[in-house]
Amino acid sequence: MVNNTIYFLRHAETKKDPSNPPSQWELSEIGRKKSEDIAKKSEFSDVDLIISADEKKSYQTAEPLAKKLGKEVIRIKELNEINRDKGGFLDIQEYSRTKRMMFMDPDFSAHGWETARSALERFSRAVEEIDRKYDNKKILIVASGTVITLYFALLQDDFRSLIVRWKKLDFCEWGAVENGRVLKDVI
Fold first, then answer.
1. In the predicted model, what is the mean pLDDT of the chain?
2. pLDDT digits (tens, 9 = 90+) for 60-106
3. β-pairing verdict for 73-76 and 49-53
4. What is the CA angle 172-3-152, rounded to 5?
């Protein structure tokens, strides 16, 4: 019987680098410090597994906790953020407009971005596979804000307020799920 508690942690602050695709962005200095602080949080001191998206920002967020607990970080690319590498660097206005449209229409795509529907299906399948693979474990998944926002909306059957939820989700916010039920919301 599967009875895992899965914690979802949004990665720490990133350093936006227009010369690299977003999937290659690393943590900022503030983000690195915050990831060190996460390693001290009691909420995660007894996790059995640490899993991150394959992106650097998620892995770098998970790494200090893994070192403290003497665990490896399992990287899974299906947990990555909505793929927007083909879109190039967008100014804040165009980025916000595109996010708004994406949350309003799950099949919307602009700038070569993956659709919200595709990202949510990919992310959900990966989480389900992780949940089936283990039994009675505490699992930490470190990923990006958009896919976590979409996933928690799915679990709570509330897609109406996606943009509001996404805007409220700060770096390093976390939530918990057990048996498909939200124990702690990420916002």
1. 94
2. 999 999 999 999 999 999 999 999 988 888 888 999 999 999 999 99
3. parallel
4. 40
Closest CA to 65 of 93, 36, 88, 86: 36
Go through the domains of the chain in sequence order and give each one's CATH number.
5-178 (3.40.50.1240)
- Contact yes or no for 155/176 (Cβ under 8 A): no
Q: 98-131: buried (b, 16+ CB within 10 Å) or exposed (e) per residue? A: bbeebbeebeebeeebbbbeebbebbbebbeebb
Confidence tier at 2 by pLDDT (50, 70, 90): low
Mean pLDDT calculated for residue range 147-174: 94
Neighbours of 160 (CB within 10 A): 10
